[in-house]
Amino acid sequence: MNHRITKTTPDPFIRLFFTGLFFLLFSCQTNNNDNEMVAYLFAYFVGNGPGQEQVHYAISTDGYNYRALNGNKPVIDSKDISTSGGVRDPHILRGEDGNFYMVLTDLYVPEMGWENTAMVLLKSPDLINWKHTVIDIPQTYPENFSDVNRVWAPQSIYDPQAGKYMIYWSMRHNQDADIIYYAYANADFTGLESEPKQLLFKEGACIDGDIVFKDGKYHLFFKNEDEGAKGILKAVSDKINEGYVVGEEYVDQTDDQVEGSGTFKLINSDKYILMYDVYTMGKYQFCESTDLENFEVIDSDISMDFHPRHGSVIQITQKELDALLDKWGQLGNLVLGVNAPSIKQNNVVIDDQNSSIYLPLKTGASLSGLNLQFTLFKDVAIDKSGPHDFSDDPVSYTLTLGDQTREIQISAHIDHNPILEGYYADPEIIYSEKDEKYYLYPTSDGFHNWSGKYFETFSSNDLINWKPEGKVLDLTSDVSWADRNAWAPAAVERKINGTYKYFYYFTAAQQIGVAVSDNPAGPFVDSGKPLIDFKPEGINRGQEIDPDVFIDPVSGKPYLYWGNGYMAVAELNDDMVSIKKETLKVLTPDETYREGTDIFYRDGKYYFLWSEDDTRSPDYRVRYAFMDSPTGPLTIPEENLVIARDDEKGIFGTGHNSVINKKGTDEWYIIYHRFTRPKGIDMGRSAGFHREVCIDRMEFGDDGSIQKVTPTLEGIG
C-alpha cells in the first residue's frame, strides 16, 4: 500500500469547520471572559537558509504540545517587512493597550553572514495584521553608533513606572564585544525615543536578552558569549533598566551550545518554562521552574511537529486562538496526536484535503487490534475508543463539538521503512560470519548542520528486525585528533591469524580515521591518528570524507575508497589501518559524482555506486558503473540510475547507500537514506540532516545491469 502526500491548502469545508467549531468552543466556555488565557502562541523561525528566516506560528493548549499553523509555512513575508529580506528571533509582547508588539532581527544570513545593522518593529491589533517599521541603528544614530555591525535579537517589555515600552537587544561595534542595550519606543511604536543605552554591564560579550518580572524582581536571562562560555546566565535587578547583578550559575541544563532563551508562565500555574535553542544539535530544550533559580529538563513532556529556531511564547485568549485557527488552522491542529506503541510517530501523515490520517506501524504490529490514543484540541471529542480492526482500512472517526462534526478516515499499514527509529543516515552494512547476523553502521543524524559526535550500531538476523547495540565510538571521549562531524562510517570483518577482527573507518572533522574491535558491536578503539588527512595529488577541491572498505574476493586484497567531489582509492596494508600510498589512484567517474562510494562484487563484475547532487536536495540519488578490477577502469552504462525520489509516495533525497547480499542466495538489497517522511520535503536545508534509513530489494538484468530500484514504504518482509 502506498500513501500519496498531497500538497494543498485547506478546502472551503475545512475553513467552514474551523469557523463554526471554534465559534462554538468560544461560546461554550463556562467562563465567558474575553481576557481569560486559554492557549499559547509560539512565534519562531526555522533556519539560516533561503526562505527560512521568516515568522512562523504554532499553537498549544497546555504549553507542552505544539502544532504548527499554516502547515509550518511563514505567516508574514520577510520581504514585505525587512530591508534584508530575512527576519529572525521573533519576540511578541501583549501590550497594555490591547495591541501586540513584535520585534525582530533584520538579517538575511545567506547574503549577509552574521553582520547586520537593523531591527524591525511591528504592531498589531490581532496577531494577524501587522504594521511595521525598520530601524537602522547606524543611520539613525550616526554620532555614537556609526560603526555598529550587529543588531541582534531584540525583545520588548512594558515599563509600568515609565508607562512606555522598552526595547532591548545586543549590539557590536567593530570587532568589540556584543553588549545588551536598551531604548524606549515612541508612542506609536515606530521608532526609538533616544539613542541606545547599555543595559547589562559585565566583562565579555553577551547576547539574546530575555527579561521576566517575578516577585518584584526583573530577571534578565542572556547568553554568555565569553570565550569557552557554556550557555545561559541570569542577572537580577530591582529596576527594569539598570542595576543588574549577574549570577554565577548557568541556568541551561545541557553541555551543548545554546542560545535564544525564552521564558513564559504556564496558565493558572506557578510554573515557568525556560526554553532555548540547542543550535548545534538542531533541537529545542524545555525546562521547568517555580522560582526561576532551579530548572528541570522536561523534554519528554514536549512535542512539536516542527523544528523551531530562537522564538518566543505568549499566552492567548479564546478569541485570539479562534482567529488564528480560522486564518491558518488545519486538521493537525485539532488532532494533536495519535498514539500507540506500534506507531512510527515521525512518519504519521495528516492529509487536510482528504480529511485523513495515515499511521505507519512498526514491524510486527497487529492491525486487527490497534488501540489508538488521541490527544485532541480542547473540548473536541472523538466517537471511538478502544481497539479496532484496521485490516480492512480505513476506519472512520468523527470529531465533535456541540452540533458541529467532522469525519476523518484513519488508515494503518505496517511499513518496514524506515528500518530504524529516529534520524540516521549514510548506512553501512556487513554480514558477520562470527555472529552469523547483520550489522548496520549509520551516521547518527538529527544534529544541526551534521554536528553529531558519536556513532551507533544495530544488529539483525533477518534484515527486518533491528536491535540497537549502542554507541561504538564517541569522538569526544574515544578520539584524540577530532571531536566534531561524526559522519559516514564503513566497516569490514576480517579473519587474521584465525581471529576475527573488525575495522571501522569513519569521518571526523573532514578527515578519515580507523578504529579496531574484536566484536562487530564494538566498542572500537581508535588508532590514534587520522588515516586520510590529505588530498590526492592534483585534487584541490572537495573533502576527505565518506570512506568505503572492500576486500577483493578474487585477490584477497583490501582497498579503501573515499572522497567528496573526487573519488580516490588505495590498497590497504595487511594491518588494515594504513594504506599503500604508492597505489593511490583517483577514479572520479563523471560530473555526477558527489560522494558516498560503495563497492560490491557479483558474478565476476565489480560494481561502483555513488551519490549524485547534495544530501539536502530532494534529487539526491545513486548512480553506478562497472569495473573489471577494484581499481578500474570504470564503464558507465547509458542508463545508470540506481534509485531516486518518488514524488507519489513522498520519498525524497534517496542516496548514500550500501549493498548487501543475503548469504547463499542471489538476493541483493540496497540500504540507503531518505529525507524524513512526510516532513522532510518542507524542511529546507534541515532535511539534509533529518534523514532515515531504508532498505529495498535490488535486482539485476541478464547482462548484469542494475535494475532501477523503486523506493518503498513497505521495505522488505
Description:
The structure is a single chain. The protein is mainly beta. The chain has three domains: 1-30 and 319-415, Immunoglobulin-like; 39-316, Tachylectin-2, Chain A; 424-698, 5 Propeller (Tachylectin-2, Chain A). It contains eight helices and 50 strands. The chain has a five-stranded mixed beta sheet. Strands 23-24-30-29-27 form a five-stranded mixed beta sheet. A hairpin with a 6-residue loop joins β18 and β19. α1 (12-27) packs antiparallel against α6. The protein is globular and about 85 Å long. Residues 1-32 have low confidence and may be disordered.
Global outline? globular
Strand percentage: 35-45%
**Rounded mean pLDDT score:** 93
Please give the radius of gyration in angstroms: 28 Å
Kindly report the spatial arrangement of strands forming the biggest sheet: 20-3-2-1-21
Q: What share of the residues lie within helices?
A: under 10%
- Sheet of most strands: 5 strands, mixed
Compute the number of helices: 8
Please count the beta strands (DSSP E, at least 2 residues each).
50
Low-confidence segments, given as residue ranges, are: 1-32
Q: Kindly name the structural category.
A: mainly beta
Number of domains: 3
CATH arch. level architecture of the largest domain: 5 Propeller
- The CATH class of the largest domain, by name, is Mainly Beta
What is the CATH superfamily classification of the largest domain?
A: Glycosyl hydrolase domain, family 43
CATH topology-level fold name of the largest domain: Tachylectin-2, Chain A
Query: What separation lies between the terminal Cα atoms?
Result: 13 Å
